[in-house]
Amino acid sequence: MIGLGFEPILLGNFNGGGAVVQPPVNTVPPTVWGTGLIGSALQGQVGTWSGGAGIVFDWAWQRDGADIPGAAGTGATVQPLTLIAADDGAQITLRVAARLGTATATAYSAPVTPSFAGPAASPGSWKLTLGENVDMTPLDASRAFSGLALSFDLAPGSDPLPAGLNLSAAGILSGRPAPAGGPLNIIIRAANPAGSATKTLALTVRPADFYADYVGQNYSLDGTATTSFAAMHGFSRASTATRLDPLGAIEIVAVDTPRFDHAADGSALGLMVEGATTNLLVENESFTAPWTLFGATSTPAGLNLRGRWGGLRVASGGAQSNR
Q: Is pLDDT above 80 for 301?
């Protein structure tokens, strides 16, 4: 019969002289500090350890007990951790492993639970004027708020957006508004998991310089809107001018001549376009006498030069200059 016997075996770490190497002892746990708000940084410190010189520290930031990729290092200095949306509501800790030779001890900080800061609206008034039936330049409403992970909508009590406009969840206001109106109180709300904030946009849709919807019976000219095409016949310019007649000749157009050409029954023939190059003024040097051109006579007091205009000045002796 064969008997097997074993001598006791001591498991441990030995230095060169054969003595067991004891791991470092954590006397003050690792610490973490900061606001804990998403977007800010947490600072960390490895704590206090005993065990002699030569201790090496390996540290790692953890989210819910698992090391965060790219957030670990070696040394007594802990690099800050910038909190991201994934950290919201999680348990963030700092794990520190202290090595002395091959003996290691590990300690953890108390957990920190990050959260978002609530949105805040910028101070001051907010106004926007758009053109009727004109594509607007998209407006980024997020610039009127601070905060992270914001989503946007219209708050309760807001006036509805004009037809043709849209506010995306990302806060982009875009589209082609109609009809004209306002100012409207558009209350834009920004929200994230921590709360919400609102800001009122005073939105005005200005009537189009020229717009004709013959089906919907909506018309506008020079910012004046109407639902009657017959009424639009009365829209007129505020100064004398010239235009081409049906035969292509230049004719004088008196003050308050309707800008639209139309048949006797009211049907539209189109807008009379008056180019600046056809606006013609004729005067003598002192401009005290009436003048006649193509059978139409005007006196100096009859000229009304409001708005944009251009013309040709004819001086005595045949000299002429642009006006």
A: no
- Cβ neighbors of 150 (< 8 A, separation 6 or more) are 119, 142, 171, 190, 191, 192
List Cβ<8 Å contacts ≥24 apart for 191-194: 191/119, 191/150, 191/151, 191/152, 191/153, 192/116, 192/118, 192/119, 192/147, 192/148, 192/149, 192/150, 192/151, 193/88, 193/115, 193/116, 193/149, 194/115, 194/116, 194/117, 194/118, 194/119, 194/147
Rounded to two decimals, what is the model's pTM?
Answer: 0.54
Chain centroid, CA 308 distance in Å: 35
Edge-to-edge order in the sheet of strand 195-206: 127-131, 195-206, 181-192, 151-154
- Strands 296-298 and 250-253, how do they pair? unpaired
The phi and psi torsions of 67 (rounded to 5 degrees) equal -60, 140
Where exactly are the structural domains of the chain? 25-108, 120-206, 237-323
Higher-confidence residue of 202 and 19: namely: 202
Closest CA to 99 of 29, 24, 11: 24
Tens digits of residue pLDDT in 194-211: 999 999 999 999 887 666
Residue 94 pLDDT greater than 90, yes or no: yes
**Residue owning tokens 């601070």:** 146
CATH label, 120-206, candidates 1.10.486.10, 1.20.58.220, 2.60.40.10, 3.10.450.50: 2.60.40.10
| Contact predicate 74/46, CB 8 Å | no
Whether the link from the prior residue into 246 is cis, omega within 30° of 0, is: no
- State how far the Cα of 120 lies from the Cα of 50, in Å rounded to an integer: 47
Paired tokens of 20? 């067991």
Q: How far is CA 163 from the centre of its chain?
A: 20
Q: 198 and 211 in contact (C-beta within 8 Å)? A: no
The rounded distance, in Å, linking the Cα atoms of 81 and 79 is: 7
